[in-house]
Amino acid sequence: MSVKKGDVAPEISGTDLVTNSSWSLKAQAMADVLLAFTPLTDSVVAGVHGPALVEIWNALGGKADPPFKMAVISGYKALGGSPPKEKPEDATEVKAAIKKFQITFPVVSSPESHKKYTMPDVIGPTFYCLHWHPEDKAYKVGTLYTGFKLADTKQTIKALLDFLYSCGVNKNAVDSIGGSPDPKPFMLAALGTMLLPVILQFIGGVTADGGGWGITPGGKKIPFPPWDPLHTLGPAGHDALIGLTVAALAGNISDPVFRGQVRKAGVLAVKAAVDQLEKTS
């Protein structure tokens, strides 16, 4: 059974074939981590994923907030067939791929981790975005994606950026990667009419005190809770409630970038409300 969203991420340890030193997941604590279970010894897959991952690392390594780290976990590559078969990756071949793609981030040889994370029910490239939870002193799976379609490097970079952005990895000082526009940190003004109608559908019917209904981008009618529980906190309490609801309803949006932007709009509303409450307390 592979590791799923929300699970505590099993520990990974092995040899980093880039530096020939030991590497462990627990040593990355406090950073967001992208784990790429993609075979560098498969010339077809690696020919696309290798350059894409290098571009992502060059752009985000040391420039993201919270800190961002990345590692390819080397273990097995698929051979196809029914039932699917796989074979261990050869370390010499992996090192040749590291040299070919000029990889500077960790490539960790850990076949056992492949078994923990992706086999037997997943055969093929799998990407995990992990968040550190200090209260549990553990990494948990924020999002995962199995089987990025093979396309050109630019499309793969865009897919990986969308994946990381939906996971909450924010980027600073990066205008473009591989010719693909970089999803900017959320700014309401920059979204114009694309986002505002969606938010108005969420909150337009509940600007009065008594609660009401909201409509998701897919047309689903959802009840809003009444203002009563936060009535004593005044308008700021109302804004906080609406912001939380918008952030929660963002999960109904299928597009990962837009979903992340709407969620951030809700979070920003909550933060602004909290700031206002602090000023008036």
In short:
37% of the residues lie in helices and 22% in strands. It contains 8 helices and 13 strands.
Mean pLDDT metric: 74
Report, as a whole number of angstroms, the end-to-end distance: 50 Å
Number of helices: 8
What general form does the structure show? Answer: elongated
| Structural class based on helices, strands and sheet pairing | alpha+beta
Radius of gyration: 22 Å
**E-strand count:** 13
Order of helices and strands: EEEHEEEHEHEEHEEHHEEHH
- Please tell me the total number of domains: 2
- The protein's oligomeric status is single chain
Q: Quote the CATH topology of the largest domain.
A: Glutaredoxin
- Unreliable spans: 171-210
CATH homology superfamily of the largest domain = Glutaredoxin
Could you give the order of strands across the largest sheet?
A: 2-1-7-4-3-8-9
Portion in helices = 25-40%
Largest β-sheet summary: 7 strands, mixed
Beta-strand residue percentage: 15-25%
